[in-house]
Description:
By secondary structure, this protein is mainly beta.
Amino acid sequence: MKHLKQIIGSLLFASLSSLNASEPFNNIQGFYGERAAGLGGAFTALSDDPSGAYYNPAGLGFTYNDGISISASNFKNVKRSYLNIDTPGQTYNQTHQGFDPNFIGLLKNFDKWKFAFSIVNTYNFAYNRADQVNFPLVSPTINTTRNYTKERYNQLLVGPSIAYLVTNKLSLGATLYYMSDTKEVSRSQFQQFSDLSYVMRSYVDNRQTSGLMPILGIQYQPFQKVSLGMSIRRIFVTGGNRLYNEVYVDSKRAPGTSAVDFIEGSSSAFSAVEAGALVQKPKLTSSIPQTTEIRWGAAFFPTSRFLTSFDVIYTSGYKVKQSQDEFSRRGTRNTFTMTDSELRELTRTSTTNFAFGMEYYLMDTFAILAGVYTNEPNTKPISWTQSAVDLYLQNTFANQIQATSGDNTFVYKVARSGTDPRNEYSRNRGLSLGFSWATSKSSVSVTFIREVGQGNSRIDPNSLSQSFEYSAHSLYIMVSSRN
């Protein structure tokens, strides 16, 4: 029975870990706007086109034409590789391909006042997979595991911007975005053991979060060939909802009410019938991390055809606590379970990233742009030693303390590093290369982005950490017009 519980625990937590496996583990999700993409995101001290509404709205103060900018096409291909999963030499690949617009911006000039409106699709990931693992070496009692998964993650920003040119050297600006952030996950999992018994689990987890993201910016040009900029933004969650439904079947259980588990929860309440026991679980969160981001930028224009720009992007960490205690009752027996109160799916560590870009006009109407950038993980490092210690404590002490008096049992569970949903750590680096054709009235640009990284992950809490590799490439096609 103990062995079966360990297998079931592995099954459950492997699934739970995958709930957040595709949500952002790095803070830079893409680039928005014609020149910003080509410069690798080093745009804070420029921001002189409609995309400045996102990077630094103060930069809009130095624009002199009305304009519209549209990301006609944005193709993105992402591959995440988890090495040596279940069996040495076996690699689990998670891929995404998307073809979406990611930015639309409008800009209107009224002398020293500038007004803009923009729509930014910061990320849009979709996964649809069917996986099967047969006779894994690390679990000889398992014959086969099958997973059928559909996942979708999306964030959309919509809102106005305003900038005021205080002097011919100084501009102030602000943007107020309405934010919609959604997660949709559905999964079915079947696992059969060597004695032909099986467990099966199917669940749906949907979350919708709304909020505001104000951005304040300042831009100053102390000299004709130098520009300095800074912007600050913060996410404020204003509402949201979440619904989770699960059915779990264990063929070794006795027929009747204990054979099937029914679990249903929301951001208001979460309860279940598990192995015949009524369980009151902690309510689910419908929030997302409410982080702050500060950008500093500098740009240098040595000639009329050439410029360089540099950005430092700091994103704060985030941590919140909420009761995670559970209470269950089966017949006359009561069990109270206490655990760590940190909502680990919302925990973020702070990051500091850098971006450097260059733009050179080969001709009056044709420019080449290039950039490099970093994309550090907002998770903690995951080491082999840490996972080995975690497994030892779990196998030796079950990571819990238990006391029983009559029909009442008290359990204190120590939070395991292996069950942390923030289970991926990858230090990424990126390159950008763009080409722009521009006239006094319009422009078209094509930009290629390549981002790679490596680190560690731990998607199975009952296995050691494994090596992780990240690879992505994007193609942006931008069209702009000016009056």
